[in-house]
Every structure is written in C-alpha cells, then in structure tokens.
Design goal:
A hairpin with a 4-residue loop joins strand 2 and strand 3. The radius of gyration is 27 Å and the shape is globular. The longest helix has 18 residues. Helix 2 packs across helix 3 and helix 3 crosses helix 4. It has 3 domains: about 70 residues, no CATH class; about 120 residues, Aspartate Aminotransferase, domain 1 (Alpha-Beta Complex), CATH 3.90.1150; about 200 residues, Type I PLP-dependent aspartate aminotransferase-like (Major domain) (Aspartate Aminotransferase, domain 2, 3-Layer(aba) Sandwich). With about 450 residues, it is an alpha/beta fold. The protein is built from 19 helices and 17 strands. The strands form 6 sheets. A 5-stranded mixed beta sheet has the order 4-12-11-10-9, with helices on both faces. The structure holds pyridoxal-5'-phosphate.
C-alpha cells in the first residue's frame, strides 16, 4: 500500500483537539485550506514525516503556515524603545477604565445620535463638545478620525479652490506619509508658499493675501526644530492679520497638549487653550499623541466656523465611531482635574515617572534578563534618555534608565532581537552604541515581562 494512503482525512485532522484550537484562533476556513495544501505537498514529496499520519501532529505545521499567511495578528508588545508615543507601536495607550467607557458603547445600543430629552435625532459631537469647550475656552468643537482628517476637512471647508498662504518653514512631512503640501492640494487649496525655510515675516503673509485667499494656516513643525537665524510669525500676530482681512486663522497643533506639561516637569508645549486665547479661530490636534486618548482629530474654535465644518459633506466621511467618542468623553472628563492625570491617564503617568523609580526597576529587570540569557551576554543598567515621539517636543529628552545588553558579537545581539520579537509578547528595545537597550520608562507590567522572558531559555 502506498504511503500516502496513510494520511488522515481532512475531517479527521480538523477534529483533532489541537487542530481545533488552531481553528479557533485562525478561523476554520483558513485551517481547512491549509490542511489541504499541506497534504497535497506531502503527497507530492513522497516521504512522509512522522507527524503526517497523526491528526494531532498537524497543529504545529498548520500554526507555522498560517502565521506566514496571516501574520501574528495584533499582539501586545513591550515598547521598551525609549520612544514614548511610538507611532509604529500604537502611540498612546489608555487605561482599562478608559477602554471600558468605549466598550459600553460597543456592547449595547446607545444614544449616540439620539437626543433623549426630546426623543429625536441628535448630534454625536454633543457627547464631547461641552467638555472640549470647557478645556480649551473655544466656543464650539467637533471631532473626526484623526488629526490628518481634521486638517483636511478644515482646509477643504475654507480653502477649496482658494489661495492658502503657508510658511515655507511649516510645509512639513511627518512620519507615515502626512505631507502638508500634499494634504493642502488634496483639500483643493492653491498653496501659496511664503517666506523662506528658516525665516518667515508677517509682511510675507500680508503680501500673499488677495481677494482669492481662503484662510491663513500655521502648522506646528512637530518633528523638527531649526536653530540659528530663524524667524516665525507668532499666532497672535497672524491672528490680527487674519482678522483685518476677515479670514479664519487655523492652527494645526499636531500633538496638542490640553494641560501645561510643565506641571509634570516637562518643557512647555503650546496648549489648545493658549492657542485659542492668542486669537486662533480654529485649532486642530490629535487624540492619541499628547492628549493620551485614542486616534481622533479634534477641531475647536469659533461656533460659526465649526458649523460650516460640520456642514461639509466630508465630515460625514471622516466622522468618528461611538467607541472613540465613549473613550474621548471619559478622557476629557479626567482632564478637568489635572492633579489626578498622573494617576489616571497612562501617558501622563509615563511622562511623570521619576528616574529613581526607573533605576530600581532597571535593576530588577536586569536580573530577570540575566537569569534567562546565556553567560556570554553582559547585562547591566545605565542612565538613558527617552524621546516623547509622534512629533511632540522633538528635541526634548526625558531622563530614564535602561537595561543594557552587550555581547562580543553584534550578530548575537541581532539574533537576540529576533528571539525577543518571537516571544508571545514581543519585547522591542533599541540598538545604541553597540548595545541593546531596554528603556524602563514605558514598562508598566513587570510581572508580565518576567513571565514572558522566562520563555527565552531554549
Ligand atoms: C501628527 C500631526 C498630524 C497628523 O495627526 P494624526 O493624528 O497622526 O493624523 C498633523 N499635523 C501635525 C503638525 C502633526 O504633528
């Protein structure tokens, strides 16, 4: 009898307990297809490996195959890179209480767009508008999918088929393909570059304004900072100029702090409230950068302008869902008591951690690493510096501590990085000066890291 007839039927394989577990994780149809492919390859190869005749033997090869096809999915990782708001690792994280505020909206029908006081259709923005007005001093507010959408929508509402002067020093590109000139063009604006890369004067704007100008815009340069012979036009001056010409001044803050970060020992970053107070008519900022909530783009400002933005058909295409609104409302409620943010808002908690705490943590974590690495790795701790990330305070560093791994061979460090990425909860550090560093500022679950690293041992 030829060997291949000893292969179990597809149904038998699918009924094996271990394969059922794979199917629960990966989906039955994907597993069924993979079993068929695997068996047809086995038939073509001739020689059968031992596992091929045992239905339970298929779980591991199926898992490996489906990991290639499907990837690992969205898995929790340890961001020990030293970049706090790491775009590639999901930016800000929220607390369980914040997540639950969104979960409630997902689990049950809600009054998302239903005004309970009159029993008629309502406006989803009303869930967060009064809170944003309280925190920023603006007259009105609306929210869209992210800050890129907020900028696009605002520009499209006031600058479509109009001239829009913008400083050459503010035509920025931020990571992940957001380029201001491209967004402006897609919003239908005719970009009018003014000034130079390093210096832009009020007169440059003044000279660029004509009958076809739709708005003035000021953009936070986010991830870069030029020093030396530089000049930018401040919000107050630009606001006065805009007002004289009856144009709205839009300020894209990017990160958009809602409270003064000095409170947490950080340098000052312009807040939305200050920007409104300086005369900006509209201010846009992200929900998941310095605000520390979830992906969203907030627009605050003059009531009449917000009304026009909300009447733009693109608003419907860019609106946020109920989960986001639930979380934002909860977050904005927390912001009314800034003293408590360091306890209740994970991002602020991370920013406010003290170096002494991080030094002790680094010491404990270095012992965990030592216990699970071969003796040829040298493990110690070192003072380090964190960056905030996502274009917030680009040249500011926060003092921190890191666990440092060194090895005679660079290749050993690279291969360890790969093993750390293969863990159930991948551990991501950074290579610096020939050492592998794991920054402690963003480590908030020491026990989970320990449990996870315990699987490193071969
Ligand atoms: C980050 C940023 C954006 C884009 O915000 P997202 O929330 O990533 O869409 C726009 N403008 C500036 C100045 C930024 O820093």
């Amino acid at each position: 009898m030829p060997q291949r007839s000893r292969l179990p039927s597809v149904d038998k394989v699918l009924n094996a307990a271990s394969v059922k577990r794979v199917a629960r994780d990966r989906g039955l149809a994907m597993v069924k297809r993979a079993v068929r492919e695997l068996q047809s390859e086995l038939r073509a190869n001739g020689d059968l490996p031992d596992w091929a005749t045992d239905p339970d033997g298929y779980a591991a090869p199926l898992e490996a195959r489906l990991t290639v096809v499907l990837g690992r999915g969205l898995v929790r990782v340890f961001n020990l890179t030293g970049t706090i708001i790491h775009t590639n690792l999901g930016r800000a994280t929220i607390s369980r209480a914040m997540a639950e505020a969104g979960l409630e909206a997902a689990l049950h029908p809600t009054n998302l767009e239903f005004d309970l006081s009159v029993g008629r259709r309502g406006d989803r923005d009303s869930l967060i508008e009064p809170l944003l007005c309280e925190l920023t001093g603006a007259e009105a507010a609306t929210v869209v999918n992210n800050n890129a959408a907020a900028v696009l929508l605002t520009l499209n509402t006031f600058g479509f088929d109009r001239n829009v002067p913008v400083s050459r020093g503010e035509l920025i590109e931020i990571g992940g393909s957001f380029r201001m000139p491209d967004i402006m063009e897609r919003a239908g604006c005719r970009v009018r570059e003014v000034g130079t890369t390093n210096r832009t004067h009020l007169e440059d704007f003044e000279a660029a304004i004509d009958a076809d100008t739709g708005l003035l815009i000021k953009v936070h340069p986010s991830n870069y900072h030029i020093e030396g012979f530089t000049r930018e036009v401040g919000t107050s001056d630009l606001a006065k100029l805009a007002q004289r010409h009856g144009l709205p001044l839009v300020v894209d803050l990017g990160s958009g702090a809602l409270v003064d970060l000095k409170r947490f020992g950080l340098p000052h970053e312009p807040t939305a409230a200050e920007t409104i107070a300086k005369g900006a008519d509209l201010v846009t900022f992200s929900g998941d950068k310095l605000l520390g909530a979830v992906q969203a783009g907030l627009i605050v400002g003059k009531a009449e302008l917000i009304r026009q933005i909300k009447a733009n058909p693109l608003k419907r295409a860019l609106r946020v869902d109920k989960i986001t609104l639930g979380i934002l409302r909860h977050t904005l409620t927390l912001y009314q008591e800034p003293e408590r943010l360091a306890e209740e808002l994970p991002l602020i908690r991370t920013l406010a951690r003290k170096p002494q705490e991080l030094e002790a943590l680094a010491q404990r974590v270095s012992e965990i690493f030592s216990a699970h690495l071969s003796a040829d790795f040298s493990v110690d701790t070192t003072a380090s510096e964190c960056q905030i990330g996502s274009g917030a305070l680009p040249d500011q560093r926060l003092p921190s501590f890191a666990v440092r791994l060194r090895h005679e061979k660079d290749s050993a460090l690279t291969s360890l990085q790969g093993k750390l990425r293969d863990l159930p909860m991948p551990v991501i550090g950074r290579l610096q000066d020939g050492a592998l560093l794991f920054d402690m500022r963003t480590l908030d679950d020491e026990a989970a890291l320990a449990e996870n690293l315990a699987r490193l041992m071969p």
